[in-house]
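Hi D.,

Good news: the full-assembly prediction came through. Inputs first.
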Amino acid sequence: MKDDNIQDLSWDEWDELQRPAPEVTDFDRVVDEAISRRGFLGGLLAFGSGAAVMGTGLLKSSTALADAHGAFGFTPIPAFTDNTIHVPEGYEWKVVARWGDALFSDAPSYEDGHGVDGSDRIFGENTDGMDLFVLEDGREVIAINHEYVNPGINIAADAEGRDAYTPEEIQTLMNLQGVTVMEIADSGNGYEVVVDSPYNRRIHHNTPMMISGPAAGHDMLKTSADPTGTVVLGTMNNCGSGRTLWGTYMTCEENFNGYFGTTAEMEDQKPIELPDDFSRYGIGVNSRYQYETLQDRYDIVKEPNEPYRFGYVVEIDPADPEAMPVKRTALGRFKHENAAMAQAEDGRIVVYMGDDERGEFMYKYVSNGTWAPGEPTDGLLDDGTLYAAVFNTDGTGQWVALTPESTGMDAAMICILTRQAASAVGATTMDRPEWIAVSSTLPEAYCCLTNNSRRAPGFTNAGGDPAEPIAGSPNPREENRYGQIVRWRPDGADHGADTFAWDLYVMAGNPVVGLGPYAGSENVNEGNMFNSPDGMVVDSKGLIWIQTDGDDSNEGPYAGMGNNQMLVGHPETGEIARFLTGPSGCEVTGLTFNTDYTVAFAGIQHPGGTWPDGAGKPRSSVVAIWRTDGAPVG
Ligand code: FEO
Ligand code: CA
Ligand code: CA
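Then the structure:
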């Protein structure tokens, strides 16, 4: 390999090398100040027991859960550190798809080896966001992301120790990422992939797709291969996901910067000159997978516009295998984690989105047009306004519109250099926004702020102020190693509103070894503690399913937390219960359900050891989980 050390880094660690982030974000400061004003636990966790102060109108749909206070349909499980999955008593799980499984009977499988031939017709690696769709003919189809690859797992062992991958190896890596659409069915043995289904499809790093919205056709999106700036090959680093109200899949391009580099050499020790905006997005001369040696478009010196064609939300129709995916530039260009759709009272479409990088922002998009079931969807994700979130220390907040007037940028540039546009309006810098989920029963939404490990005393924050504790404040997080979930309620119970109230649904922590705020908020205890919330989905009952991507060392500050896991949170009581633990080394990410919620599908990404086969290499997989009595999960 070119550089074993690079491949050993997580995406976050690698990104830190490309673009070191500020140690402290504005959101840290907002939380500190809010704690100082309102008190740590009593104030920041205001919506749970104190929900009445928010107005009874906000609780209009909550009766089902209120009746079920503290009554999850499962017995919480303890933390585990072994190399398998654990679920509650009365539940079972099985693997539905592992990377390398053939989607077509004429494709090779993992057992056949994993060369380039047919690598675009097998289930890809490192599953992430997913959604299940029931098509008009009743068939069930899952669209699922393959965020990135581990070359040491995906390509032949003899690649170890070599300086460069072969063209075939790079092509293989390209094919194993992107998105899978696959039909699943239960014919008596639990859900399985329907091999050769006409809906089965792989979308990878060379799949043609359209570019739509304000940035389509802009000069910055034109390349020598696409002088129109409207057609691009591939979607990459597909992290979280979302579903539209009209039954399509939204896949989100996150760490796209890591795929670009250059083969150009420095001249006279002078750095290679790059566009100024590249550094804000972490685009530099080093790539992770050597794509630039295979295709010029990944070489930022030869094709400097290609990176402007990535970093978007891409809409895919799971019901039409021939339909070209569409990059929706109106939803902005940044490291999209996921996309959570809601609808304003007046029928406009709302999409909440996080930019997963320390010190970046939370966004929402609001369409100009309105929609009702059965109506056309044209333009709904192309014509609208982007907003960035501002959090105030008094528990209020605003969505600030990114417009030519507020940013000094035209509509296309706002969609291409969205981070700069949000900076122009003074949006609140956040602790790595991961998944956002919109409640199905309450007019509120949640965002996982996964962690900010570099926060430390003695540093200066982005605004230039010292990052020392504010006088009178317990200052809970000198190092935000555990993460938290922020919750907001739009004013008027309308996701179209420009203002909201916020609190923290949970501050993760360790009540056994942690002191003060390191112990976490009141709804964290010895039996449910976790760190680094990341994936998040709300089910039909309003329960909040939380998945973690954190430190699974089970030592020091993380002692007792065990492997990465999935928990279920109650939106009103704040009660949180551990539902699943993953195999050692993994992150649990991606969750969807069948129609009647009797089966949950969860993703196990980058497992360790030999999971799940007990021999050979570890294989990221989708697992089905169900109650043995056939009742809904959760
Ligand atoms: Fe791909 Fe931010 O997780
Ligand atoms: Ca994630
Ligand atoms: Ca993460």
